[in-house]
């Protein structure tokens, strides 16, 4: 059956409407071919499809895909650790305020994930790489405009949900909150193109690192601690490690799209060294948390410390082996390596969470 | 049109074995790319000498890549004859490829169109990047179709794009919208040609009797193999020596046919996109150039389905 195709260049007034899905209420323009993405002379060929003919999964599947729930691990790990630490330190905080703050972080995270999908679609990254982003827009499940709307909705909801904390601790939270919102804007703004520049890595480190942990701690107790700052530094390193991994996977496409980040500047061979060093630093910070810098969850058990150190050594060696076996940016094992690096990170976080929960259960007198 | 000699300085007789090597190389080839360039140049009103130059340029670039390819892959045969590196020496094969590229630059720069020289140099660079990347994928049976397409876009499609664009540049037509459209069409033609060539490896529409499973035996998963084996464990395919082994590893002949049907459907969509671009091309050509659309129309039949269309002019 012949399909309806339409090719538009960026200079065509219809281009933006077809890309964002606002050209029609009954049809969707699915990008079929994109040439010269992120250039002023970009052209896109769309397949125009009736909405009723698009094979959509159920709503839950769409939500899980677009919200990128598994990416929230990096956001909620430090929050969980802070809550556990505060409980273990017998620090009082309001349960309702804490719940609102957790919800605020959740909404803001969803907002950023949705906005990333939106900008990656507009720039073209998700259009030329089927493994990038949720692909919900490219498959026609949702339009880019809808994704933008929901991103803005969750941003507003997040800000409103976080407002009570602002009233309770206004003096410090204004600084932290204002900086964070500014960074979120810069990180995701197409106008500045900041996300696709090296500054995004610094912004990501701050937003998912010290700013997150300090801000959350202040929003609960009005105060901050060095241990939470250290936790933030660890989490920031880990979050940016995931960003570097994604850029490493997309090295070839980023190069063709003229997108600059640390990985694309270093190139394939030097990036391998860089990634390994970054991973080692993250592991050292993990050891710091384990032994000293998160005193509430610190274990005195020799066994626990040995297990923790063994994990660190194992993950360091495993990552090194898989990384330095890679021959090419298009090597299929790049995907395996990235998956394995993420899994290793997940186990490290799980270990810390189990440690913290174990101490909490101990404190509550619950013995398993 | 003589593919070999454009300028009297090409292939001087004093260099030992040089002419013998090239005579071997140029006979037996179909010269399809040179024909494609002529097909595009004619309706644009290019002078005969310009058409000869463009034809020679693309064949030189293509054959240079073949000379180097055969050495890199250690292939013993090329076009039914002993490969140049085996018959003469690896050193001569490397030098012969370099020499062809050097002659391209000499003859093009004498033509005087700097944008054509610049574009040709870019295409050669893309071709080499594609070769480099493809070489890094040998032995990697987990590569996906998207990754292969990126390699083929550089390696195969770049020359097809050149065949379509170069005549316009030679005629000093630099219209951006036109060139973008031609580039998209060239990308599609290159992709379709490569995928059809990959099917020959599995004896599909293999009228030219290309060797079966050559790519797989060399440790390279081509586009059809990639598509057909998606989601399956790859180890059984590493030891395939013939088609029966491949069918068995895949899950039977009927599964193969099902996958072939799916692959053809995928490429039929690409053909539809190509035809869509062809319609848009009409809007960008002058009245006197519209014959080009008729020349380009049947190409997908020839390149992908490997059959002569009902009305073909060449």
Task: Describe the protein in words.
The complex is a heterodimer of chains A (368) and B (314). With 368 residues, chain A is mainly α. Chain A folds into two domains: 4-53; 59-363, Farnesyl Diphosphate Synthase (Orthogonal Bundle), CATH 1.10.600. Helices cover 67% and strands 6% of the residues of chain A. Chain A has helices spanning 15-20, 59-67, 73-88, 95-123, 125-128, 144-168, 170-188, 199-207, 210-221, 226-249, 251-256, 262-293, 302-324, 333-363, and strands spanning 4-9, 27-35, 43-50. In chain A, a hairpin with a 7-residue loop joins strand 2 (27-35) and strand 3 (43-50). The N and C termini of chain A lie far apart (63 Å). Chain B folds into two domains: 1-112, Farnesyl Diphosphate Synthase; 148-314, Farnesyl Diphosphate Synthase (Orthogonal Bundle). Chain B is mostly helical and 314 residues long. In chain B, 68% of the residues lie in helices and 1% in strands. The longest helix of chain B is centred in the C-terminal third of the chain and has 32 residues, at 253-284. Chain B is globular. The chains are: A mainly alpha (368), B mainly alpha (314). At the A-B interface, strand 1 and strand 2 of A face helix 7, helix 9 and helix 14 of B.
């Amino acid at each position: 059956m012949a399909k309806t195709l339409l090719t538009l260049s960026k200079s065509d007034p219809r281009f933006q409407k077809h890309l964002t899905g606002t050209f029609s209420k009954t049809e969707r323009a699915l990008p079929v071919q994109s040439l010269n993405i992120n250039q002023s002379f970009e052209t896109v060929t769309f397949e125009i499809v009736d909405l009723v003919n698009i094979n959509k999964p159920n709503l839950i599947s769409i939500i899980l895909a677009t919200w990128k729930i598994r990416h929230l691990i990096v956001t909620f790990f430090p929050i969980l650790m802070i809550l556990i630490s505060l409980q273990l330190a017998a620090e009082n905080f309001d349960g309702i305020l804490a719940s609102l703050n957790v919800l605020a972080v959740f909404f803001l995270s969803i907002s950023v994930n949705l906005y990333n999908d939106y900008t990656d679609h507009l720039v073209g990254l998700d259009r030329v790489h089927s493994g990038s982003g949720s692909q919900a827009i490219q498959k026609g499940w949702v339009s880019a405009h809808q994704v933008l709307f929901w991103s803005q909705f969750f941003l507003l909801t997040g800000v409103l949900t976080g407002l009570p904390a602002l009233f309770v601790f206004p003096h410090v939270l204004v600084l932290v909150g204002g900086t964070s919102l500014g960074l979120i804007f810069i990180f995701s703004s197409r106008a500045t193109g900041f996300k696709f520049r090296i500054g995004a890595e610094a912004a990501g480190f701050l937003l998912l690192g010290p700013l997150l942990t300090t801000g959350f701690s202040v929003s609960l107790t009005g105060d901050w601690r060095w241990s939470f700052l250290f936790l933030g530094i660890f989490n920031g390193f880990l979050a940016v490690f995931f960003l570097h991994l994604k850029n490493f996977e997309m090295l070839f496409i980023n190069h063709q799209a003229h997108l600059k980040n640390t990985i694309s500047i270093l190139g394939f061979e030097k990036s391998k060294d860089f990634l390994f060093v970054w991973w080692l630093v993250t592991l050292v910070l993990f050891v710091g948390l384990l032994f000293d810098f998160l005193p509430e969850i610190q274990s005195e058990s020799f066994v626990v410390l040995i297990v923790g150190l063994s994990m660190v050594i194992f993950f360091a060696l495993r990552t090194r082996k898989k990384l330095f076996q890679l021959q090419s940016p298009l090597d299929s094992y790049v995907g395996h390596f990235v998956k394995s690096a993420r899994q290793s990170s997940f186990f490290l976080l799980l270990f810390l969470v189990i440690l913290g929960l174990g101490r909490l259960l101990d404190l509550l007198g619950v013995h398993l | 049109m003589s593919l070999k000699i454009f300028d009297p300085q090409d292939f001087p007789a004093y260099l030992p074995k040089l002419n013998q090597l090239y005579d071997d190389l140029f006979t037996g080839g179909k010269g399809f790319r040179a024909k494609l360039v002529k097909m595009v140049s004619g309706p644009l009103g290019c002078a005969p000498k310009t058409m000869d130059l463009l034809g020679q340029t693309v064949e030189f670039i293509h054959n240079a890549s073949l000379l180097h390819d055969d050495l890199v892959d250690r292939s013993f045969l090329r076009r039914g004859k002993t490969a140049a590196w085996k018959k003469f020496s690896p050193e001569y094969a490397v030098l012969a490829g370099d020499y062809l590229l050097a002659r391209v630059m000499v003859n093009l720069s004498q033509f005087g169109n700097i944008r054509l020289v610049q574009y040709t140099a870019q295409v050669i660079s893309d071709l080499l990047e594609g070769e480099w990347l493809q070489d890094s994928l040998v032995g990697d049976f987990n590569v996906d179709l998207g990754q292969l397409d990126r390699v083929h876009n550089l390696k195969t499609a770049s020359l097809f794009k050149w065949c379509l664009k170069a005549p316009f540049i030679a005629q000093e037509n630099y219209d951006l919208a036109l060139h973008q459209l031609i580039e998209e069409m060239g990308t599609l033609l290159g992709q379709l040609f490569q995928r059809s060539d990959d099917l020959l490896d599995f004896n599909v529409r293999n009228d030219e009797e290309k060797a079966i499973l050559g790519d797989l035996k060399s440790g390279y998963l081509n586009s059809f193999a990639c598509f057909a084996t998606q989601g399956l464990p790859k180890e059984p395919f590493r030891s395939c020596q013939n088609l029966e082994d491949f069918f068995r590893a895949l899950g039977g002949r009927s599964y193969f046919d099902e996958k072939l049907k799916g692959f053809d459907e995928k490429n039929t969509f690409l053909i539809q996109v190509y035809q869509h671009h062809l319609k848009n091309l009409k809007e960008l050509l002058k009245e006197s150039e519209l014959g080009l659309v008729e020349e380009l129309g049947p190409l997908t039949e020839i390149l992908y389905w490997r059959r002569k269309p009902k009305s073909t002019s060449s």
